[in-house]
């Protein structure tokens, strides 16, 4: 992802994350970090299941598996108690 793409994604009001084939974060935009109450630096290169172990219980796991298996974009709403 180039710098101009990152700048655009940092300006959107939705949380956006990108993962590699090993479930490691490759990109987290500002809004996603804010929603997850963490600093962007905490994600880079780390496994989603290590950083967010509760994610599998929130329905994310099923959606992410579908995305990887079928190579499709998925969207979903997630409610997380703050």
TrEMBL record:
It holds the Pfam family PAS. Coiled coil: none annotated. InterPro entries: PAS, PAS-like_dom_sf, PAS_fold. GO terms for molecular function: DNA binding. GO terms for biological process: regulation of DNA-templated transcription. Residues 1-47 form the PAS domain. It comes from Halalkalibacter krulwichiae. Keywords: DNA-binding. PROSITE patterns: PAS (PS50112). This is DNA-binding transcriptional regulator DhaR.
């Amino acid at each position: 992802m180039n710098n101009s793409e990152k700048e655009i994604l940092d300006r959107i009001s939705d949380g956006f994350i990108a993962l590699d084939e090993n479930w490691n974060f490759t990109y987290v935009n500002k809004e996603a970090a804010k929603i997850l109450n963490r600093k962007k630096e905490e994600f880079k290169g780390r496994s989603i299941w290590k950083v967010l172990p509760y994610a599998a219980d929130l329905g994310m796991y099923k959606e992410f598996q579908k995305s990887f298996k079928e190579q499709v974009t998925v969207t979903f709403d997630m409610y997380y108690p703050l």
